[in-house]
Structure formats: structure tokens, C-alpha cells
Specification:
Shape: elongated
Radius of gyration: 34 Å
Largest sheet: 8 strands, antiparallel
Helix content: under 10%
Strand content: over 45%
Distance between the termini: 86 Å
């Protein structure tokens, strides 16, 4: 006779059944406990012991067959805790649970986890927030005698009603290559690897990554219909009737890298029956629509990655004393503003680079005839164009895109009052 486990845990007030393993046993099994607060008796099934703890404690439980002169023991620990089975929905990256009111946060793991009785606060992070969102996950969880033994952190697809991309997506594409897919076992972005057998007819966004990085970018494509499965190595599965909508702007180029062995068959824009790698330049019609669709036309295809490359936005220079240029670097598009407002013996101008929300990206002041060489790629010269009139200056400025200097127009103006405060202009 052998009791399978050396130690058993049972919550206070609950019962535990122990079934010994026996061979050639002829007599009945009797059960004993060395702790009166932890009782044991024979269950409805012969040979099975039923342990119950009325209060926390520990007992040695003995199963014995006097007829066969054989016995075995185990330890039973009764505590104000219980085993909770934890499950994570797709896209749940990590979770913590904290006993209230002042317990320390601890990692919530998938599978069985023993939790003491009490009230808990749950926090979690999504590993693929563009694709999955939480589905009615409660922030509170109670563990007690009659509480649930399952804790489910469920998710659902992040759905959108139509294929459309906002300006924040297009603005984030300039001067970058955005990638969806993998190189060997590295996924770009890593969140794409969380997509497991995505099959439905609604429209779901999938984040891309700036090439060389694994974090989600602000650029996403959408998937609809068919099946997309990326929880594998080397490539992602993309089945018949799957439609991907890939955002494009002027001069965007899409590259599709097919799987080396299990090639997908697809259309891209107006090009059909593609069975290999493909490079596709967005047409004027694509740009007007705002995206190019990739449609899979044969089942069980695989792609290694998709990229969309977009050059830096052309710079359109403005006119006037306080509006001298349009600037784009690393996805930050804004207007270069030159402002009067420096107070001191050395005359000068201050300049600000503002984004479209009028937030200052770069701010500097220029004193005398010194040049500013700003790390963000903005340069400006302040030049005294009239030796006998220190109040008359003109400014010229340029930005650097892809290592090339692009100059803006020069402008001039007489400073009336160095002491006055200058309000930050709004972006047109």
C-alpha cells in the first residue's frame, strides 16, 4: 500500500480525498489522524480516506490494513488558502496580484497557484495591445471557503469598424521602414508572435515595428477574414481569403518576403497571382485610398515578413518672420518658428521647433554671430547685415535630412523691444 503524495494541502473547512495505491490487499483500510482538529474517515468509496480540517494546522494521517500488517502515512497541512487555477488569454504578457490592503505584489503565474484567503487586486500588461484587448477582466479577486477556484484573464480581438488610418499612422511612416514578421526567431515587433490562429471576419489591427526594433510602433496594418497565425518560428501562416490592408503614403514601397518552402499565393494592389517575393510601389490611386491590400488566394501559405518603406517627407518652407520652415525627422513633423524675445547686451533671436500639437521639440537661443549646431539636426545662422545698425539682422536656417542640408529662406526684421515677452505661436 502506498499513499501517492508525502504532503497534501487542504483549505480550512474543505475536504480532501486520499486514495492509496494497493496491490494484493485482502483486509480493509482504517484511517487515523494524530490531530483532533483534522479529522479523517472512510469515504463513500471503499479504501478512500476523506480528510477535513476545521482549523489551520498539521496532522500525520495513517492508512493501515491490520489484516495485511501494512500501513503508510502522509502529512496534511490545513491552512486558510486554496489552489487557484490561473489562465491567460492571448496577448496577456504578465500579471501581478496583491493582497489587500498592504500585501506585496507577487507575480501571477499560469496554472495552479496557492493563494491565502483574502481580497486581492489584479494588474496586468498586454503584450500585443494593438491586436488584443482585455475582456471584462475584474481588478478584484476574493479567495475564501466558497470562492471560485479559477481565475481567468480573458482577452478579445481589438476590432475596428472599417479600414482607415489616422494621420498619426501616416506621420509615423516618414523616413522609416516598418516591418511585420520575423528574421529567424526574432519577431518584429515581438508582439506579433502573440497572434495565435486569428480567424474571424472583423477587422483587427496588428502593430508593426520600425525596422531593427522589436517594440510596437504607431503604425499598424489590418487583417480581416481567413487565418493569420504567427505563434511559430521563421514565418507566419496566412491562409486563403485573408486580407491585409497596409497603409501607404506618397513614395511608399511595399516588400513581401515569401517563405522559402511553403510559399503563399497572393495579390498585391492590382498585381495578381504572385507566388514569390514582391516589391511594389504605391500608385497615386493607392495613396488616395490610403492603403494597399494583400489578398491570399491559396490555402496554407506562409510569409516571412512584410515591409513598407517611406522616404522622409519633403520640406515645404514657409514665409515670414516667425514661420520659416517645415521640418521632419524621426517621425516628428513640425514648423520651425523663429521668435524675438532674448534680453541682453548681445542681440539675437530665439527659435523653437514645434510639433503639430504646439509642443516644443527643440528650443535654443542664438547670441551675436555665433552659430547653433543642434543635435536634432537643426541649424541656424544669425548675421548682422548692416555694420552700423546692430538692430537689423536676418536669419537663415536649414535642416538635415539623410545627410543633406536643405535651406530655408532668409528673412529680416528690426527688433523693437528686447524686454517684451513673446507668446508661443500656434501651428498653422
Amino acid at each position: 500500500m502506498n499513499i501517492p503524495e508525502e504532503t497534501y494541502n487542504v483549505p480550512t473547512g474543505e475536504e480532501l480525498k486520499i486514495t492509496p495505491e494497493t496491490e494484493n490487499l485482502t483486509g480493509d483500510i482504517t484511517w487515523k489522524s494524530d490531530n483532533p482538529s483534522i479529522t479523517v474517515k472512510e469515504g463513500d468509496v471503499k479504501g478512500v480516506g476523506v480528510v477535513k480540517g476545521d482549523q489551520p494546522g498539521q496532522a500525520t494521517i495513517t492508512a493501515e490494513s491490520v489484516t495485511d500488517n501494512i500501513k503508510d502515512t502522509c502529512t496534511v497541512i490545513v491552512s486558510n488558502s486554496k489552489i487557484v487555477n490561473v489562465s491567460f488569454g492571448l496577448g496577456i504578457g504578465s500579471a501581478k496580484i496583491q493582497k489587500q490592503p498592504d500585501g506585496q505584489p507577487q507575480e501571477l503565474i499560469k496554472g495552479e497557484q496557492r493563494l491565502d484567503y483574502g481580497n486581492y487586486k489584479i494588474t496586468y500588461e498586454l503584450s500585443a495591445p494593438m491586436t488584443y484587448v482585455a475582456d471584462n477582466i475584474s481588478e478584484d479577486f476574493t479567495v475564501g471557503t466558497n470562492s471560485p477556484t479559477r481565475l481567468e484573464l480573458n482577452t478579445k480581438n481589438h476590432e475596428i469598424s472599417e479600414v482607415s488610418f489616422g494621420p498619426e499612422v501616416y506621420n509615423a511612416m516618414y523616413g522609416k521602414t516598418i516591418i511585420w514578421g520575423c528574421d529567424s526567431d526574432t519577431w518584429y515587433p515581438k508582439s506579433m508572435h502573440e497572434i495565435n490562429s486569428l480567424q474571424q471576419n472583423n477587422i483587427v489591427p496588428i502593430a508593426g515595428a520600425v525596422q531593427g526594433k522589436t517594440e510596437d510602433s504607431d503604425v499598424y496594418m489590418t487583417v480581416q477574414g481567413g487565418k493569420l497565425h504567427a505563434a511559430r518560428s521563421g514565418s507566419f501562416q496566412i491562409n486563403e481569403n485573408t486580407v491585409l490592408s497596409i497603409p501607404v503614403v506618397e513614395n511608399s514601397t511595399i516588400t513581401v518576403k515569401n517563405d522559402a518552402s511553403k510559399k503563399a499565393t497572393y495579390t498585391l494592389g492590382k498585381e495578381t497571382d504572385i507566388k514569390s517575393d514582391k516589391t511594389y510601389e504605391a500608385t497615386a490611386e493607392d495613396v488616395q485610398k490610403g492603403y494597399v491590400q494583400l489578398k491570399v488566394t491559396a490555402k496554407d501559405g506562409y510569409l516571412q515578413y512584410i515591409t513598407v518603406e517611406t522616404p522622409a517627407s519633403p520640406i515645404t518652407w514657409g514665409e515670414g518672420e516667425t514661420d520659416s520652415g517645415y521640418y521632419d525627422e524621426d517621425g516628428k513633423k513640425g514648423v520651425i518658428r523663429f521668435l524675438q524675445g532674448y534680453s541682453g547686451e548681445a542681440e539675437g533671436y530665439g527659435f523653437y521647433l514645434l510639433d503639430k500639437e504646439s509642443k516644443i521639440i527643440v528650443g535654443s537661443k542664438i547670441e551675436g554671430k555665433e552659430d547653433i549646431n543642434n543635435a536634432d539636426g537643426i541649424y541656424a545662422d544669425l548675421i548682422n547685415i548692416e555694420e552700423n545698425n546692430s538692430d537689423l539682422y536676418y536669419m537663415k536656417a536649414f535642416v538635415v535630412v539623410d545627410g543633406k542640408e536643405i535651406w530655408g529662406p532668409a528673412f529680416g526684421g528690426k527688433v523693437d523691444d528686447w524686454e517684451r515677452e513673446v507668446e508661443k505661436p500656434t501651428v498653422q
